[in-house]
Amino acid sequence: MCLFSAIIFSQISNPLPSSTSIAQTSVSDTHNWAAFNNVAMLGYIEKPELGLLFENRYMISELSTKNIQFSLPTNSVNVGLSFSHFGYSLYHEMIAGIGFARNFSDKFALGVQFDYYSAYFTASNSYRGAFFPLVGLAVAFSPVFTAGFTVLNPFQTNIQTEFVTKRLPSVFSFGSQYFFSPELVWRTQIDKEVSSNYRFATGFEYQMLQKFNVKLGMYCSDYLVSCLGIGFITHSFRFDLNCDVHPLLGIKPLAAIRYSFK
After folding, report:
1. What is the CATH number of the domain that holds 224?
2. Is there a contact between 28 and 148 (Cβ–Cβ < 8 Å)?
């Protein structure tokens, strides 16, 4: 008789909202601060900005994410407030964060964000939560090349209940941004969640007539996922619509709108 033993590692669920950067290559995107991504990009904000985002994972309403963020630049440090809700009535996760970042003469930007995560557990009919930090850095090696680094939940904070231990994602990300021209940018990114596989991503964004953006990219983590997106920019508003196409799970649309105050 033969006895086989197998060890199975499951992916840690990630309730964080995606960014409007194509293929989620936001760690080096100096033109786009996305809540719960690289907080250092908050340092590049020049006007107060309000943003709303909705993401529907694989066309399942119970897996939708709603996010709101607000940024306020000051003379000393830029401040960002953000809130995200993932799930539905029987199970949902919420994250609130306050971030601080500064751009040091366009040479580099540094930021830190303090996040509070809470989840609703049906078994105990209660909420449990935990604090964890998000730290980000962006370094401009030249006017056309920037590298970014961020770490989320570096101390691997988890939530312990009477019935289960809720493991929160602990993610390290590194990426680059290169402008071939003022209209064409190429971004790359590598993510590593400590208990999951690496994620490799790359994408291009092309701006036409200073009003329209066309985005094309892909990322790989177990499966190769294609990404498409478009954007429309006015004097105060920016609209983005992205779509990830997973070969097994289907499509994951994302819509976002941002308003810059004068």
Report:
1. 2.40.160.60
2. yes
